Amino acid sequence: MDSCPLCQPDTDETIWADASCRVLLVDDEDHPGYCRVIWHAHVAEMSDLTPADQRHLMNVVMATEIALRELMQPAKINLASLGNKVPHLHWHVIARFVDDRHFPDAIWGKLQREGVRRNGPARAALHDALVVALTELRAG
Amino acid sequence: MDSCPLCQPDTDETIWADASCRVLLVDDEDHPGYCRVIWHAHVAEMSDLTPADQRHLMNVVMATEIALRELMQPAKINLASLGNKVPHLHWHVIARFVDDRHFPDAIWGKLQREGVRRNGPARAALHDALVVALTELRAG
Predict the structure, then answer these.
(1) pLDDT tens digits for chain A (140 residues)?
(2) B46–A66: do the CB atoms touch at under 8 Å?
């Protein structure tokens, strides 16, 4: 749909894509290990996809989770498909750390602390490592 | 693990179960269409499961989503696996309504309004309908 922001390509943050979906590394300084997996077509819910497409999308979400775990050793991975504001199917895949600004709440929850250090590798290094990891995981 | 609340059975809220996981109808008066899908074994992350177990768990999450959509016609379904506080794999499957207390934020986000009406069927009716729907969806 013309008015949907996720129907537009987001070239600057995209780190991997295939014919069905794309993976972005979100530029969020509070949560450096924050990826978004976006289904290309404008559908609202996971259950609007065929079972085969659901499996494909979840496989890409899992590859993203595995890459973030390997690269950042987070305390926890958070997965979420909400879409209340932008009802175009997308998954948040977020590496969480005990000293991040919202832990142990959801990143949409209460601010817990200020001025925490940035966990994990620098953004450019993380970007490049994620590209390699996703390409290998999806090829493997 | 002995100290993990999700390693204990929760008989009162459980509406469906198989050998691997169980579905609860959460007693949340702000969000009546709120289910939780809990993996029986104590693992933290989706990617700790085998690919076959990931598919099985996601199939149960999808059956729960489909049942909630059919029974409640929500504005949106929210799916989330967070586990920052209780790192035992579980999924939140939440029917969201434009007049619920947190919409369009996540239910873990900012309170948006007070005193909204309860959407959908009464809890007892929803409970019984979910049992039937999940049983049929998982058998089908």
Answers:
(1) 678 999 987 667 899 999 999 999 999 989 999 999 999 999 999 999 999 999 999 999 999 999 999 999 999 999 999 999 999 999 999 999 999 999 999 999 999 998 676 767 888 889 999 999 899 888 86
(2) no
| A45 contacts B77? CB cut-off 8 A | yes
* pTM score: 0.95
Q: How many CB pairs under 8 A join A and B?
A: 97
B50 touching chain A per CB within 8 A: no
For tokens 């996601």, name the residue: B58
H or E element, residue B81? strand B76-81
Q: Give A95's contacts (C-beta < 8 A, 6+ positions apart).
A: A31, A32, A33, A34, A68, A69, A72, A74, A77, A119, A120
Residues 94-113 of B with CB under 8 A from A: 96, 103-106, 108-109
Q: Are A75 and A64 in contact (CB under 8 A)?
A: no
Residues across chain B: 140
Residues of A in contact with B34 (CB under 8 A): none
Strand pairing report for A34-39 and A90-96: antiparallel
ipTM of the complex in this document: 0.95
Residue in B46, B84, B103 nearest the CB of A65: B46
